[in-house]
Design a protein that fits this description.
28% strand; 5 helices; 128 residues; alpha+beta
């Protein structure tokens, strides 16, 4: 198993860089299902605010299992993964050197169950 201390040394992303990475993702467009009675723009603004309110100082994360077999699990299991937002036991994960995001679950960033899918869409992954 990868050593979490080794990952700490490799991670140099700051909270401001994590925010910029999310902002760039949002600027590229988000696949967001808009509830009845709301506009896409208003819903995106509300969801974005909620995500930004939960951005944390990036920390190494270990993806140890997945809800959906196959998909992007192996990629995350074998890459440098950072947790960049947390709400309860939900974590927004990103590959440190790629424009990819995934949703994970767990009590600790050292043992994350990944939803199974990832994409360049931070909002889309956060709102699964």
């Amino acid at each position: 198993m990868r050593d979490i201390k080794m990952l700490c040394v490799l991670s140099a992303m700051t909270k401001n860089e994590a925010i910029a990475k999310i902002e760039n993702s949002i600027a590229e467009g988000s696949q967001l299902i808009t509830p009845a009675g709301k506009t896409y723009e208003d819903h995106l603004a509300a969801v974005s605010k909620k995500l930004f309110d939960h951005v944390i100082e990036p920390m190494p994360a270990l993806v140890t299992s997945t809800c959906v077999a196959g998909e992007d699990y192996e990629k995350y299991k074998n890459s440098s993964v950072l947790a960049i937002a947390q709400m309860g036991s939900s974590w927004l994960l990103t590959l440190e050197f790629e424009n990819e995001f995934a949703l994970g679950f767990g009590e600790s960033p050292k043992d994350i169950m990944m939803h199974g899918f990832s994409s360049p869409d931070a909002i889309g992954e956060w709102c699964v």
